[in-house]
Amino acid sequence: MVVVLGKRKIGFFNETVQHMSGPDRSARLVELVGPARLDEVFQAKVRQRRWAVGLVTLGIAVIGVWLMCDMLNLGGWSPLKVVELSLFVLLFTALAFGFTQAFIGFLVLAEGHEPLKITNTLDPAAPLASTAIAMPIFNEDATTVFGNIRTLYDSLQQRGELENFDFYLLSDSVEPNKVVEEELAWADLCRQTNGFGKIHYRRRRLPVNRKSGNIADFCRRWGHRHRYMIVLDADSIMTGEAVSSLVRLMEVNPRTGIIQTMPKLAKAQTLFGRIQQFASRLYSPVFAAGLNFWQQGAGNYWGHNAIIRVSPFLTSCGLPELPGREPLGGRVLSHDFVEAALMRDAGWEVWFAYDLEGSYEGLPPNLTEYVKRDRRWCQGNLQHMWFLLAEKIRPVSRLHLIQGILAYGSSPLLALFILFGTFQAAIDRWHQKTLNVQLPSALILMFLTLLLLFSPKLLSLIHLSSQSKSLRPYGSGLRAAVGVVLEIVFSILIAPIMVWFHTRFVFRNLGGQTVTWHTQTREGGEAPGWAATLSEYWPLPVSGICLGLFAWWISPGYFLWLLPILLGLWLAVPLALLSGRSGLLTSFFRTPEETEPVKELTTSYVFQLREGDQFVHAILDPFYNAVHVALQKERRNHAPAAEGYVASLAAKLFRQGPEALTAREKRALLADGPTVARLHVLIWKTPAQLMNPIWSKALESYRSPERVSRPASELMEQSHSPVDPAVA
Amino acid sequence: MAISAEYLTLLRVGINASPEWKEAWDRINDYLDALKVPEDVERQLALLSSFEQAIARKRQEPFTPATQLAFEETQRALDQTLGHLIGPEVPRDRRSVEERIRLFLTEPSDRSSSKSQVQLSDEVLEALREVRLKPTPRLQQASITARPFRFSPTGEKVITFAERVAFLGSNRILSWCLGLGIIGLLIFASL
C-alpha cells in the first residue's frame, strides 16, 4: 500500500509530508520514513479508524438497548421480553453500524480530502498491462451484452489503449435461441470492429458451478495470458478511462489483489428502477466513503466491475466445496465475498475505489424481478455461514460475511421481533394492562431509531446541496429534496414486503429448498400483470388485514404504531404493479446518469440479428448457418451411436419441424456442425410438397421486403420484360 | 457468355409457365434474398444462367425436382464466383459454409457476389483466404485449485453440536412443530 498524504496530518512526520500528494511524492515519503515504518503508521491509522467506528457503534447501541430495557422494564420481565430484547440488540447494533458508517462517510466527504484511499495513488503515466475483460453471460439478451462490450471497446480504442486489452464473452447459455443469437452477434461485433483475435467468445457445453465455475474455467484456459482481469456483469458498462485507471492502480499497488469500483445504477426506465437509481446515486457516496474509511485494504468484492490480479486469484481463490448439500452446502453460489476473503487470507489487499468514475450497472426493472434476484442472493449469502466457522478467515472478512448474511437474515429476526412485541402487547391487553411501556423512553427510542434510519439520507442531501454544481443534474435542490421524501415514503412502504419475502426465502433455504438458476430480467423487461402479481403477493394483504385487526383489538394506539408496516402489507399488490410502470413521476428521481449521461451510456449499437426463432435461423439463414457451423468443433470420434442419434434428430426436425425437438435435442443437433450444414442445403433445395409446410413458410420469411411488397402482376410483368441487350 | 435478350425473355416465360420451375425460381430468389444479394440485372442474369443449366440437367434427370436442380446450379455458380476467396485446402463439403462466411464478412459494402471479385483489393482477398472464424485464442492453461474447507477450532465445536441436534431439522413437519412449540412455550411462560 502506498500511502498518499495530503493536507491531513498523520502521526509524527506530519510536518514533513504535510503537502504531499501524488505517486511521486508518495515514493519520496517512502524514502523519508522507510517502507516498514510507513506500513506501521498506516496500520496504526487503520486500527484507530476501526476502533473509532466500533466505539461509536457500540455507544449508540448501548443507548438504544438502555432505552429498550427501560421501556420493557415496566410491568416486570417475561421470557417474551427477554427474547425481544435479544433480537433488538442484534438489529439495533446493525442499524447503528450502518448509521456510523454513513455519518463518518459524510464527515469524510465534507472534509473534502480522504488521505487513505486507493485512487490517490492513480498515476496517469503508469504503464498498462495485459488485461482480460471477462464477461460471464447466461441466456442474456445478445444486443445488450455485445453492445456493452462494444461500448468499452470503442471507448478504449478512442483512448488509443486497446492493445493491452482482450475481451472474453464467457457464455454459459443453454437456450438454443440464445446460443445462436450470441454466435451471430459475436461474429457481427468482430466484423464491425475488426475485432477478430481481440474479442473472444467461448461457450461451455455444461455450465458447471455457474458463474464462479465460468470464471474459473476462463482462468484455467487463459489465466496465463493476462496479468489482470476485469470482471463485468451482462449489464455492466464501464468507460475506457475507468478500466485503464483500474489497471494503472493495480500497477502502482503491487500488493493489491482486487480493486472493486462503485458501480452507479443507470438506464432505469420504470418507477421502481428510477427510484432505486436515484437512491443509490444520492446515498451511496456517504456510505461508500464511510465503508472505505474503516475497511481500507481489507475490502470486499461484489462480483463485477472490479479488477483482479490473476496470479494470486489462481493460487489462492479456488472455491472450496462446502459441507453438506445445497441449498446451504455444496458448491459456493455467491462467490465474490468468499474470493475477497481468500485473497485477504493469502496476504493480498482488497481495495474499494469508491470515487472512481465511469463504472455503471443496470438493475431489475420492478419489485417482482428485484425479489427474484434477492432469492438467489439470499441463498448465496446464507451459504457464507460456513465461512464464519472456517479457519484462516480474517476478522474484517468475517464482518463482511456477517453483513451479507444479515442483509437477508435480519428480515426473519425483525419479523420475530415484531411478532413477539405483538404477543407481549396482546398478553398485556389480556391482563387488562394498558400502555405497559415507559412512554418517554419509547418516544426517545423511536426518535433515535428514525434518526439512525433516515439521517444518512438527510446527510446525503446536505452533502449534495453543499455543491451547487453537483445539484444541477438532479433538477434542482427542491426536486432532489422532494425526491428524497418520496423515496423515503416508497422505501417505508416496500420495507414490509421485502421483510416478508426475505423471511420466506431464509426459511425456505433453511428448510432445504434450493433456487434454480435463471436469467435476471434487465431493465425494459415486461412488467408483471395483475394475475401474476396477485398470485405472488396475495398473502401480504391478507396477513396485513389479520395483523391490523389483531393490533386494533390490542389497542388503537398499537394499531397506529404498526400502521407503517400494515400500509406496506395492504398495498403490496398495487405497489408491485406500479413499480414496473414507466413514465411516472418523471420530474423527480433524476440523476446525473439520466440528465447528463456520459457518451458510453447513450451509445447504442445494432447487430445484424433477425427477429424470430433463432434456432430456425441457424438452420435456414445462410449467414447464421455458416457462422454457427464454423464455430462448432470438428467431431474427432465418429461414434456410430452419437451419429445415429444426431441423424435421427435431423430427420425428426425435417419431418416434423422445430417444435418437435426439445431444447436438449436442439442443443445436441446444433453441436453437430456438418449435420446443421447438410440440413441447411436439404431444406433449401427440397420442393414444398416434399417437406413439412412449416419449412416452406419459414423459407418465405427470408424474402426481401421489396419482393414481398411487389404485386404479383408486377412480378409477372418484370419477368416478361426484356433484358437490356447491351448488358446481356 | 453473351445471351440474347429474346432468349432470356423466352426462358423467363417458360419458367413462369411451369409451376415446378416457378416454385424453383421463387425459392432460389428467396435464398439470394437471404444472402442479401442485391436484386439487380446481374443477379437476374446469373439466375437465368443457373436455370438454363438446371433445365438442361432436367432433361437428363427427369425425376429430380426442379428446385433441387436449380439450387445446385445456383450453388455451383456461387462456388465459381466466390471460389477465389477460399484457399484450395478447404474440403469440398465445407466450401459453401466458408463462402457464406466471406460474404458475411464483406457485407455490407460488397453484398453482390458478382461484384466482390472486382471491388476487393488483393490484400483483402489474401486476408479473406486466410480467414478462420476462431472464437477463442490459443490455450495458455493454468490450474486453479480449490482450497479444502477446514473448520476453525470454535467452528469444529459448533458443528459438532449442530450435528447432534441436526435430527430436529431433518423433517419439515418436526421443524415447524418445534418452532411453533418454542413460540407457544414463550407465550405461555409470559402469561
Strand order of the largest sheet of chain A: 3-2-1-4-8-6-9
Distance between the termini of chain B: 107 Å
Shape of chain A: globular
Strand fraction band of chain A? Answer: 5-15%
Estimate the helix proportion of chain B, in percent. 55-70%
Largest interface: A-B, 87 and 78 residues
Q: Categorize the overall geometry of chain B.
A: elongated
Q: Report the helical percentage of chain A.
A: 55-70%
On the 0 to 100 scale, the average pLDDT of chain B is 82
Calculate Rg of chain A over CA atoms: 30 Å
- Quaternary class: heterodimer
Number of domains in the coordinates of chain A? 4
Contiguous runs where pLDDT drops below 50 for at least 5 residues of chain B: 109-118
In total, the number of strands of chain B is 0
* Strand residue percentage of chain B: under 5%
What's the N-to-C terminus distance of chain A? 77 Å
Structural class of chain B: mainly alpha
Total of DSSP H or I helical runs spanning 4+ residues of chain A: 31
How many beta-strand segments of chain A? 10
Largest sheet of chain B, in brief, is: none
SSE order and pairing:
The complex is a heterodimer of chains A (728) and B (191).
Chain A lengths: L13 H4 L5 H11 L1 H39 L5 H33 L19 E7 L4 H18 L5 E7 L4 H18 L5 E5 L6 H13 L5 E4 L5 E2 L1 H13 L3 E6 L2 E2 L5 H25 L10 E4 H7 L19 H10 L3 E5 L5 E3 L5 H17 L1 H4 L6 H36 L8 H27 L2 H4 L5 H34 L19 H8 L1 H16 L1 H15 L1 H8 L12 H4 L3 H4 L11 H7 L1 H10 L8 H17 L6 H8 L2 H13 L7 H8 L4 H5 L2 H9 L8
Parallel strand pairs in A: 1-2, 1-4, 2-3, 6-9, 7-10
Antiparallel strand pairs in A: 4-8, 5-10, 6-8
Helix pairs in contact in A: 2-3, 3-4, 3-15, 4-9, 4-14, 4-15, 5-6, 5-8, 6-24, 6-25, 9-15, 9-17, 11-14, 12-14, 12-17, 14-17, 14-19, 15-17, 17-20, 18-21, 19-20, 24-25, 25-28, 26-27, 26-28
Chain B lengths: L4 H13 L1 H16 L6 H20 L5 H17 L9 H15 L6 H7 L2 H9 L22 H13 L6 H19 L1
Helix pairs in contact in B: 1-2, 2-4, 3-4, 4-5
Description:
The complex is a heterodimer of chains A (728) and B (191). Chain A is built from 31 helices and 10 strands. Chain A is α/β, with parallel strands linked by helices and 728 residues long. Chain A has a 7-stranded mixed beta sheet, sandwiched between helices. With 191 residues, chain B is mainly alpha-helical. In chain B, 68% of the residues lie in helices and 0% in strands. Chain B is built from 9 helices and no strands. Chains A and B meet through α4, α6, β3, α7 and α10 of A and α1, α2, α3, α4 and α5 of B.
